[in-house]
Design brief:
With 377 residues, the protein is mainly beta. The chain is built from six helices and 23 strands. 13% of the residues lie in helices and 36% in strands.
Length: 377
């Protein structure tokens, strides 16, 4: 098995559309970009690059099956070489007097007698563990790796810093008449792009460099170093192997915490596709089951903090079925699931389950959806 960790960097700003209509119709002349590409976008980029390097015939069905067997984990965002993650949905950041940030942790509570909620049977509501003052401030959508590690093992010690995402550049274009080669009157459209390099001026002048980190494995050697076309409008991106240690491993404090608990938390590092929508399909009707990476561990779902669903679609380029792909609904990155351990050793989550996919479908797992971070509550 050939395995390597790759860093993807953009030569120019990139566009990752969210699947909403983009055309000449009123209301659809604006192409918005996602803050991070979906796993299937990066998986398709890596597999296309590998197939071209191997010299495969894309008209053959065997080629499709061969490249779909390449396992891609990610992408994870890197800022100046440090991994950052989507903020966990069970964290409520607010500012105290004086502007100091504080975090309240959402935790499951048992409704008192006479109280109730409209959640599915067996799922408890969530309440903050401390009083929340004022509105949540902006700038906390991304968390540094070390902050999230503390949150997974000891939420009381985690105070996030403000981490702004990649800069979004918006460009206005004109539609071109194909016959005359001139602009068409009154037909303007706008496109957003992500800038992977950013310069901040002022007292603390600094340069920010963003990249995408993926781990790839295949039965055959993968000659992937070089350049390829990524995202909308086929923009150029570079791919380079990096040391395996760049891929985040389970932190020691999280490892220790998982070895002495019966309550575990799952935080999605990448969006997940579940057959149950917001709920993993490997949980039965009684909300009990085992994650794919830990078949000997039995968990029971207690509660969940899942953000609004996201949609992924795209265009299918296979010659036998060219056309738009069906919409798939995602549980967004940062969604949190609370479990009780009812069988097995939860330490296996640190040893075998860290940043492993928890999706129901094996192909979705190979595409990089549903990478899991584990902690306690």
């Amino acid at each position: 098995m050939s395995e390597q960790v790759l860093r993807i960097r953009a030569v120019d700003s990139l566009l990752f559309r969210d699947g909403r209509p983009f055309g000449a119709e009123i209301g659809s002349q604006f192409a918005q970009t996602l803050p991070c590409p979906y796993p299937s976008t990066v998986a398709g980029f890596i597999r296309t690059l590998a197939g071209n390097r191997w010299g495969l015939d894309w008209a053959e069905e065997s080629t499709i099956q061969q490249v779909l067997g390449i396992r891609v984990q990610g992408p994870l965002l890197e800022r100046n070489g440090e991994t950052v993650f989507r903020a966990p949905a069970d964290a409520v950041v607010f500012e105290q007097a004086g502007g100091r940030a504080r975090v309240a942790a959402l935790r499951p509570i048992e409704p008192a007698q006479g109280e109730g909620c409209d959640l599915p049977d067996g799922v408890m509501p969530l309440m903050p563990d401390t009083a929340v003052e004022g509105k949540p401030p902006k700038g906390y959508d991304l968390w540094r790796c070390q902050t999230l590690s503390r949150w997974l093992s000891d939420p009381s010690a985690a105070v996030p810093e403000q981490v702004e995402g990649m800069e979004v550049e918006e460009r206005v274009h004109v539609a071109i008449d194909d016959e005359k080669g001139t602009s068409q009157e009154s037909l303007l459209f706008s496109v957003q792009f992500l800038c992977f390099e950013r310069y901040r001026w002022g007292e603390a002048e600094r340069r920010e460099e963003w990249s995408l980190l993926v781990r790839v494995s295949s039965e055959q050697p993968l000659p992937l170093e070089g350049v390829g076309l990524l995202g909308g409008e086929k923009r150029i991106a570079t791919v380079e192997p990096v040391e395996a240690q760049r891929w985040p491993s389970c932190p020691p404090d999280v490892y220790e915490a998982l070895g002495r608990t019966e309550k575990v938390r799952l935080v999605l590092a990448t969006p997940a596709i579940f057959s149950g929508g917001w709920k993993p399909g490997w949980l039965g009707d009684n909300l009990q089951g085992s994650p794919p990476s830990a078949p000997d561990l039995k968990l029971q779902l207690v509660s969940a903090a899942v953000r609004r669903r996201e949609a992924v679609s795209g265009w299918d380029y296979r010659k036998d079925r060219q056309g738009p792909k069906p919409v798939r609904w995602l549980a967004p990155a940062g969604s949190v699931y609370f479990f009780r351990v009812i069988g097995g050793d939860p330490l296996v989550l640190a040893e075998d389950g860290w940043l492993q996919a928890v999706c129901d479908d094996p192909q979705h797992r190979r595409d990089g959806y549903g990478l899991a971070l584990w902690g306690i509550w």
